[in-house]
Amino acid sequence: xxxxxxxxxxxxxxxxxxxxxxxxxxxxxxxxxxxxxxxxxxxxxxxxxxxxxxxxxxxxxxxxxxxxxxxxxxxxxxxxxxxxxxxxxxxxxxxxxxxxxxxxxxxxxxxxxxxxxxxxxxxxxxxxxxxxxxxxxxxxxxxxxxxxxxxxxxxxxxxxxxxxxxxxxxxxxxxxxxxxxxxxxxxxxxxxxxxxxxxxxxxxxxxxxxxxxxxxxxxxxxxxxxxxxxxxxxxxxxxxxxxxxxxxxxxxxxxxxxxxxxxxxxxxxxxxxxxxxxxxxxxxxxxxxxxxxxxxxxxxxxxxxxxxxxxxxxxxxxxxxxxxxxxxxxxxxxxxxxxxxxxxxxxxxxxxxxxxxxxxxxxxxxxxxxxxxxxxxxxxxxxxxxxxxxxxxxxxxxxxxxxxxxxxxxxxxxxxxxxxxxxxxxxxxxxxxxxxxxxxxxxxxxxxxxx
Length: 451
What we know:
3 domains, alpha/beta, CATH 2.40.50.1070
């Protein structure tokens, strides 16, 4: 086999999150976005020793798992819904197998509590970040999501089935307004232009919607006309706030350098398992509210009895959701989170919920732990996708607490950390897979460990 040549092969294995494996002429060839059982055409990009890397060109034969029909015109071009042609039961089975196969490389003998469904399969996303751009070079401006594998091309996302229908109406409204006003979009290559992103958030409880248009400061526009048009839309929910955020960072990320309130307020309030959580445009919050209840109820079931009257560390605590759910039975809960805005939101939320045995510290987990005088008796870990920093994990394990619950959105990072925890004397007792992201490759995993 030669580099840069095009080949056809059948995917016989699959690795998390989206890596199809083809065995050919003694090579293990990885093709991203190819599913088990598919026959695909691919270009061999890399070849070294017994491994290769191919770029997917087309699917010539569907997977045995793909017995349904796609529901979006962007299927195959958008990088999100890789499992779109799979019946939901097949998606759950695939995710379950991917996670348990990984965990089985470290532990055996644990209780597997199954793959838990998302209560909502469509329209479940409570937050979307859209980008301004064009579908092709010098094409008409669109507002949507990046095309798979492209840094520049943007696909119109008003039809996205993962977002509530209200989001599509808002995207259409903003797009038409900006075109009518001849507002330019920000070009990532030249760093020139005005329109950058649109953030939309919606609460399941009450249906409040927050709209935030993000621009550079290279132009002045008051958006009062847009406010009027948005408020006149016929929506299932109700717009609680419209914001204008300025971001002159050259990085293609949504960053708040200054925000003006154009209408209403700059936050909405979601309810999870009976508690209220205030959410600002840039707060971290699980993007599937009904799925979050399943996830957090699983955590509570695993650890609530062990936290009774105990000191709990909630590390990588975000806006303090888990900390507050455990606070009613715990003696004290201490949350640590590096994002200061999330910590401030956690403090506000805890006070609003009447929970005064929670405290939240802003800072890096590794650096903050040595500053906390009160030692933990139970630890909750909910780290970013890349898992716990090795030095931080070592420090955490030095506490020697009897019970730990690890929540992970990336099973490969989870398994790396579980191997270290096993060496430190921890055993996996129970494992759950929670599907927070139907039609996509992503999944949450909850592991209960004991010393």
